[in-house]
């Protein structure tokens, strides 16, 4: 018996019908709205270092990129809490917690290969001429062609 995947459906259809997906999407929109409100109250320099992680039962959890910014925000915590409590979305705010979580390191990009000199390309091309295997010969010729344009 072969596995038959279900037919593809439009994202809007999935969001309307799949309750877990709809709830997750709704929560993401809610956090995005709370993030914008938080950023409106933060100093411009702090905005890129702080994001809303959750808002439940009177506790706002903020993720901060490093200890330096967490300390700076803790000094401003009372002012920030008063400003946020004035907004309808943060009604009932009892405390703000800060959690330090460094951003993930950038993905490693493969190192750029050094250019192939004309002399090396000519040597590879000459070696390719003596090869009988067509696959290997083609691969060596492709390699040699990379070096002929750079000098």
TrEMBL record:
InterPro entries reported in the protein's UniProt record: DciA-like
Lineage: superkingdom: Bacteria
Annotated stretches, region: Disordered: 99-133
Protein name per UniProt: DUF721 domain-containing protein
Lineage: Bacteria, Pseudomonadati, Pseudomonadota, Gammaproteobacteria, Pseudomonadales
């Amino acid at each position: 018996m072969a596995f038959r995947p279900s037919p593809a459906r439009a994202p809007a259809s999935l969001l309307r019908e799949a309750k877990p997906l709809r709830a997750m999407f709704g929560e993401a929109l809610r956090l995005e709205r709370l993030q914008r409100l938080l950023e409106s109250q933060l100093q411009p320099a702090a905005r890129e270092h702080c994001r809303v992680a959750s808002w439940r039962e009177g506790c706002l959890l903020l993720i901060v990129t490093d200890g330096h910014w967490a300390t700076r925000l803790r000094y401003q915590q009372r002012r920030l809490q008063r400003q946020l409590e004035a907004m309808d979305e943060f009604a009932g705010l009892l405390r703000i917690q800060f959690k330090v979580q460094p951003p993930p390191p950038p993905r490693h990009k493969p190192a750029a290969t050094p250019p192939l000199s004309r002399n090396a390309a000519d040597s590879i091309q000459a070696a390719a001429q003596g090869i009988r295997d067509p696959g290997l010969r083609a691969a060596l010729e492709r390699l040699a062609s990379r070096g002929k344009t750079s000098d």
